[in-house]
Request: fold
Amino acid sequence: MRAFIAINVPEFLKDALAELQSVLRVGKPVSPEQFHLTLVFMDEQPDELIEEAHFALQQLEVPKFEVKLQGLDTFGGKAPSILYVGIEKNEELDRLQEKVIGVLRSAGVHLDRKRFRPHVTIARFGRRLSKADIDRLRGFMAGYANFGPVSFKVESFSLFRSTLGHKGAVHDELAQYIMT
Reply:
């Protein structure tokens, strides 16, 4: 199963991000129901390992904390592939991510070592954007560069299954872990 651990975005923030998407005239907007902040992407794992990880994550005690969404950026350099809202540097978020990684590794899950760049993806782009699309994207980003800050309290995180289909990935929440 292809899986990841993430923080769900609260409804009020989904509405704000959907409103932001409504003026974006390029790319494929991410469905608001799919908005999340990935802590760890686990990729393909055997179901037994996912179950082990689930039981281990249930034992994890982590305090609640606030995060702030701030600004827009892209992944992909000159050929952007993703538009996202950034997350202001947050030590509690970093600690949560490190603890989740530790628990997953102790459960036997192999994880690639990637730098943690917390964000909420709001749009995806095809293989090559036309010059006109890049200009539209730049205009959008210039107009909304100062998006935020918008804060929300992180009270839980979740285990998701990610199913790839012809219209992209669909994420299903399998378990939720309440924080203390």
Observations:
- The radius of gyration is 17 Å.
- The chain has a mean pLDDT of 94.
- Strands lie at 2-8, 28-29, 36-44, 65-75, 82-87, 119-124, 150-154, 156-165, 168-178.
- The chain has four helices and nine strands.
